[in-house]
Amino acid sequence: MAKKTESQILVQVSDSTLMRSGENEEIPVSKIKKELSKFLNEIEGILEEASTKTSHAAYLSEVTLSAAVHSGGKLSLLGSGVEVSAKAGITFKFTFPQP
Protein backbone atom coordinates (compact mmCIF):
# COMPACT_ATOMS: atom_id res chain seq x y z
CA MET A 1 0.00 0.00 0.00
CA ALA A 2 1.34 3.45 -0.94
CA LYS A 3 2.34 5.76 1.88
CA LYS A 4 0.16 8.90 2.02
CA THR A 5 2.26 12.04 1.72
CA GLU A 6 1.46 15.28 3.47
CA SER A 7 -0.11 18.05 1.39
CA GLN A 8 2.27 20.82 0.40
CA ILE A 9 1.82 24.45 -0.66
CA LEU A 10 4.27 26.00 -3.09
CA VAL A 11 5.45 29.37 -1.75
CA GLN A 12 7.64 31.86 -3.58
CA VAL A 13 10.07 33.08 -0.94
CA SER A 14 12.30 36.12 -0.93
CA ASP A 15 14.27 35.53 2.25
CA SER A 16 17.72 36.71 1.23
CA THR A 17 19.38 35.05 4.23
CA LEU A 18 18.22 31.57 3.23
CA MET A 19 17.34 31.49 -0.45
CA ARG A 20 17.63 33.59 -3.57
CA SER A 21 14.77 35.99 -4.18
CA GLY A 22 11.90 34.43 -6.10
CA GLU A 23 12.87 30.83 -5.41
CA ASN A 24 9.99 28.41 -4.76
CA GLU A 25 9.76 26.24 -1.69
CA GLU A 26 7.26 23.51 -0.88
CA ILE A 27 5.92 23.95 2.66
CA PRO A 28 3.73 21.35 4.41
CA VAL A 29 0.12 22.50 4.82
CA SER A 30 0.28 21.48 8.50
CA LYS A 31 3.18 23.92 9.03
CA ILE A 32 1.23 26.78 7.40
CA LYS A 33 -1.83 25.94 9.55
CA LYS A 34 0.27 25.91 12.73
CA GLU A 35 2.01 29.21 11.93
CA LEU A 36 -1.25 30.85 10.82
CA SER A 37 -3.00 29.82 14.04
CA LYS A 38 -0.14 31.16 16.16
CA PHE A 39 -0.05 34.42 14.17
CA LEU A 40 -3.82 34.98 14.45
CA ASN A 41 -3.84 34.25 18.21
CA GLU A 42 -1.21 36.94 18.75
CA ILE A 43 -3.05 39.43 16.52
CA GLU A 44 -6.32 38.71 18.33
CA GLY A 45 -4.71 39.60 21.67
CA ILE A 46 -3.35 42.85 20.24
CA LEU A 47 -6.72 43.81 18.73
CA GLU A 48 -8.64 43.01 21.93
CA GLU A 49 -6.34 45.30 23.89
CA ALA A 50 -6.56 48.05 21.26
CA SER A 51 -10.36 47.94 21.20
CA THR A 52 -10.57 48.37 24.99
CA LYS A 53 -8.27 51.41 24.89
CA THR A 54 -10.41 53.53 22.57
CA SER A 55 -12.44 56.35 24.08
CA HIS A 56 -16.20 56.06 24.52
CA ALA A 57 -16.72 58.58 21.71
CA ALA A 58 -14.83 56.41 19.22
CA TYR A 59 -14.54 52.71 18.61
CA LEU A 60 -12.33 50.43 16.59
CA SER A 61 -14.46 49.29 13.65
CA GLU A 62 -12.02 47.66 11.25
CA VAL A 63 -8.38 46.64 10.93
CA THR A 64 -6.64 45.31 7.83
CA LEU A 65 -3.27 43.59 8.19
CA SER A 66 -0.96 41.95 5.69
CA ALA A 67 1.39 39.09 6.43
CA ALA A 68 4.20 37.52 4.44
CA VAL A 69 4.98 33.82 4.31
CA HIS A 70 8.71 33.23 4.62
CA SER A 71 10.99 30.28 4.10
CA GLY A 72 9.98 27.42 6.36
CA GLY A 73 6.39 28.66 6.63
CA LYS A 74 6.94 31.47 9.14
CA LEU A 75 4.46 34.36 8.97
CA SER A 76 5.34 37.95 9.72
CA LEU A 77 3.40 41.19 9.76
CA LEU A 78 4.19 43.47 6.82
CA GLY A 79 4.92 47.09 7.65
CA SER A 80 4.74 50.04 5.31
CA GLY A 81 7.28 51.29 2.81
CA VAL A 82 8.85 50.37 -0.48
CA GLU A 83 9.68 46.79 0.50
CA VAL A 84 6.02 45.94 1.16
CA SER A 85 4.93 46.62 -2.42
CA ALA A 86 7.41 44.04 -3.67
CA LYS A 87 6.09 41.23 -1.46
CA ALA A 88 3.00 39.10 -1.82
CA GLY A 89 1.31 37.68 1.19
CA ILE A 90 -1.94 37.13 3.02
CA THR A 91 -4.30 39.98 3.88
CA PHE A 92 -6.60 39.75 6.91
CA LYS A 93 -9.55 42.10 7.45
CA PHE A 94 -11.01 42.17 10.96
CA THR A 95 -14.38 43.92 11.38
CA PHE A 96 -15.71 44.63 14.84
CA PRO A 97 -19.34 45.03 15.89
CA GLN A 98 -20.46 48.52 16.89
CA PRO A 99 -20.67 48.97 20.67
From TrEMBL:
Highest taxon of the lineage: Bacteria
InterPro entries named among the record's database cross-references: Pepco_dom (IPR056947)
Pfam families the record matches: Pepco (PF24393)
Domain Pepco: 21-95
Name this polypeptide is given: Pepco domain-containing protein
Organism: Roseibium algicola
